[in-house]
Structure formats: C-alpha cells, structure tokens
Amino acid sequence: MCGRFVQSFAKEDIQQQFPKLLIDVNWLEKDGSRSFNVAPGHLVWVLDNADSGNKVILNRLQWGFNINTAVKTRKMIINIRLDRLLNSVNWAKAITENRRVLIPANGWYEWKREQGKNQNSLPHYFEKVATSNSTDLGSKLMYFAGLIDTHGNFGIVTQAASEDITHIHDRMPLVLDSENERAIWLQKSSAAAVSLTQKKQQNSAVEHTYNSTLVSTKVNKVANNEASLLHESTPPPTQGSLF
What we know:
243 residues; alpha+beta; hypothetical protein yedk fold; 5-stranded antiparallel β-sheet; 17% helix; 32% strand; globular
C-alpha cells in the first residue's frame, strides 16, 4: 500500500517530463509544492488531462474518499488494488471515462512490523535509484498511477511489491516509469489505458529500481513536515524478554 509520500519539486522539475504542462505559476508558488509528509485527506498535486490536445495540467485534489461499510461506518479509501481494477464497475468506469491522474512524488514511506508484540513498526523511505549521472531533482521524480472517484477525490493504484521491498511491505504504488506509459495513462484513449492496465496485471514482477532508508518515527506524526524526516535513522535496540 501507500500511506504517506513526499512531494518536493519546482515546476521546472515537472516540465522536464511534460514540456507542454499547463500551470498557473503564481498558484503553485502560493500554495507550495513541498511536503515531506503527505497524508490521506491532504490536498495533493496531481497531473491531469487538460482536454486540449496533448497538454497536461497540474491540479490539486484530495487524497482519499469515504465509503459506507456494511456495518454503517464510514471508511476512507486511499489505495486501489491493480489486480481488481477491471473487475470493479466503479474503477473500470474511472479508467474508461478518463478519470486517470498521475501523482508526482519523490518517494514514499512504508512501515515494517518488527518481531515481538512490544516492538514498534519502523518507517522506511523508498526513492528512485538514479539511472544516470544526473543529480537534478526532476530526473528523480516518479509518477504514481491514480484514479478519481465520482466526487473528485483520488486514490493511488497499488500492486504487489518487488522482491527487494517485500521484506518491509508486500505492496507498493504502481509507478509508471516510461514516457510512453505516462502518456497512455493520461492522454491516450480509454482502450489504450485498459490495455496498459491488463499488461500491468499480467506482468506483476517489478524490477529493482528503489533505494530504501530507515527513517525516524517522527514521520508517524502528520504534523511533522520537514526535510529532516528523510534522514537515515539507526534501528532501536531489540527489546528482550524479562523471563
């Protein structure tokens, strides 16, 4: 799953991948585009189809939406399983009705459950492994696939985790790495998006493309939102038995 992630970029970083980006620069600078602890319920920067040729717009939508459960309680949904997309009437419609978005991110957090009932879950930060000598921020951005519900909020599509991540968590965001995949998800026909979804479902193996870092449990508190959250932390001592 994906429960927290990082967005820290300038418009130039996005424009490296989307040269025809439509954006109100003043709006971006006013609202800010840097959060080191994006959480469910937050307004999040997403890339959406501008319905004007092959252009893309940067927009803000709420992450997560509420549903009524069988026991008449409300539950916030933040993730959507890739393997169930086309079997769900609601999400299949979201794909075919062009309610598809990309969520630019620098990385995401997952929590590893330590052995022993008295041990806390430890947060790890995952980021893209550099594929070149480039050190600019834009080249390190990744793009999660997302879908918008009928009320205008979105969820992040998740898939089975790659082998190098499963020892920490069994799921991860669906990251669309190639320019072609991103174009299909945002701008191509619904048939092309359905075909991409089917391809991703059939090829569930994910290559090793991420670095993981154990970080401070300060990230557990949503109010903590600074770059130092990404600093490497030392694991706590194992709590032994008294008997």
